[in-house]
């Protein structure tokens, strides 16, 4: 790891102070929009769809694409490009396919605040809503990955101890989300998206002076990697997660499904009208292209410049410090920090919104001895969500203190567990009229439990293959259960369909 000049440290600290002050102010400003559960969770109609789209892209990216995946590229070489190229192409196609129908269902239901509520309304099942809300708690590990990424930046660049880096990151995020809810999160993430795109472009351009070769820069990079280890330039990795054709297919399956993650689909719920879908998806696609495809190149270049780093996750900080003058390095480091915060805030918001909206609002009327008025129930749900934010922060802080071996693998484990459970209920809920609540519940439980068993018991060592097979089995279980319970549920649940006429 190169020595960090004092001028760079103080430049970054000054910019961070201003930036943190801004996002806290934005959080306070957003307080007026987060007094209701819908306002806190989605800020529906309060933010430009272009900013919402940019927020989707930044939330998608996180520490995974800016620290973790470049770290995997440092370790395994060009085979990691299968992941980053799929992030834009496959995931954006998934967004285009799912967004409109998801929004139309939301409109039909009269407006929902979370994915668990969407599924609960779709299948007329409060039990399903609560179960999916429990599943979303897996995002705690996703947040841990973000915390680790942020602390790694603070530690390697600013010489701030890992422990204090965790505390700073958790504290700042909880403060502005607690104050401003979804409004503060979307506005800050939208602005962060612009900075992240600039950061990614700068890293790409830097290859022309760090690697050289002019217009043949990629050929030069491949040649240099091959000189270190020929396995670094293969289409498939050796001993890594991209080691077979079926693993690559499973990666693309994951990336296509990733847009169904609750903290991402919630962005669609922030749109007021169907006309806003076009600028939303276009903005998401443009920003996602830059921030998903270019940053990984820094990880590959870092392997050439620093072939023996102690931690692969330090590849990007090391590369930036070595390759840029202090002022540009400071801008890029800030861009990386904002990339991490942009996912962390959405994840906290998703967890706490589910606790308030899908736990409290569903269970409180059942457990209370006295009737609760609708407006009082909604106000209390917001209070519960904000209080739970503190406990969620403390939980992630505690887990983050034990640094994982691979930031990217931890993050991908957490969201794969969720996708394994929700993929079948969402997809079949779109396209199959016979899908019902019992089938959806069976799929959620089956997919998630099998994924955890496959990975923890090392039955399927590759996390992408584990998610693929767990999801496929969940589809089968849901279809069988739906067919077996049709007579029971037909009289209880009206089939919900969306046609072109409802647009």
UniProtKB/TrEMBL annotation:
<keyword id="KW-0739">Sodium transport</keyword>
<feature type="transmembrane region" description="Helical">
    <location>
        <begin position="80"/>
        <end position="99"/>
    </location>
</feature>
<feature type="transmembrane region" description="Helical">
    <location>
        <begin position="326"/>
        <end position="351"/>
    </location>
</feature>
<feature type="transmembrane region" description="Helical">
    <location>
        <begin position="245"/>
        <end position="265"/>
    </location>
</feature>
<dbReference type="Pfam" id="PF00474">
    <property type="entry name" value="SSF"/>
</dbReference>
<dbReference type="GO" id="GO:0006814">
    <property type="term" value="P:sodium ion transport"/>
</dbReference>
<feature type="transmembrane region" description="Helical">
    <location>
        <begin position="7"/>
        <end position="26"/>
    </location>
</feature>
<dbReference type="InterPro" id="IPR001734">
    <property type="entry name" value="Na/solute_symporter"/>
</dbReference>
<feature type="transmembrane region" description="Helical">
    <location>
        <begin position="407"/>
        <end position="432"/>
    </location>
</feature>
<feature type="transmembrane region" description="Helical">
    <location>
        <begin position="47"/>
        <end position="68"/>
    </location>
</feature>
<feature type="transmembrane region" description="Helical">
    <location>
        <begin position="463"/>
        <end position="484"/>
    </location>
</feature>
<feature type="transmembrane region" description="Helical">
    <location>
        <begin position="164"/>
        <end position="184"/>
    </location>
</feature>
<keyword id="KW-0915">Sodium</keyword>
<feature type="transmembrane region" description="Helical">
    <location>
        <begin position="191"/>
        <end position="211"/>
    </location>
</feature>
<keyword id="KW-0769">Symport</keyword>
<keyword id="KW-1003">Cell membrane</keyword>
<keyword id="KW-0406">Ion transport</keyword>
<feature type="transmembrane region" description="Helical">
    <location>
        <begin position="277"/>
        <end position="306"/>
    </location>
</feature>
<dbReference type="GO" id="GO:0005886">
    <property type="term" value="C:plasma membrane"/>
</dbReference>
<protein>
    <submittedName>
        <fullName>SSS family transporter</fullName>
    </submittedName>
</protein>
<feature type="transmembrane region" description="Helical">
    <location>
        <begin position="439"/>
        <end position="457"/>
    </location>
</feature>
<keyword id="KW-0813">Transport</keyword>
<comment type="similarity">
    <text>Belongs to the sodium:solute symporter (SSF) (TC 2.A.21) family.</text>
</comment>
<dbReference type="InterPro" id="IPR038377">
    <property type="entry name" value="Na/Glc_symporter_sf"/>
</dbReference>
<keyword id="KW-0812">Transmembrane</keyword>
<dbReference type="GO" id="GO:0015293">
    <property type="term" value="F:symporter activity"/>
</dbReference>
<keyword id="KW-1133">Transmembrane helix</keyword>
<dbReference type="InterPro" id="IPR050277">
    <property type="entry name" value="Sodium:Solute_Symporter"/>
</dbReference>
<feature type="transmembrane region" description="Helical">
    <location>
        <begin position="384"/>
        <end position="401"/>
    </location>
</feature>
<feature type="transmembrane region" description="Helical">
    <location>
        <begin position="127"/>
        <end position="144"/>
    </location>
</feature>
<keyword id="KW-0472">Membrane</keyword>
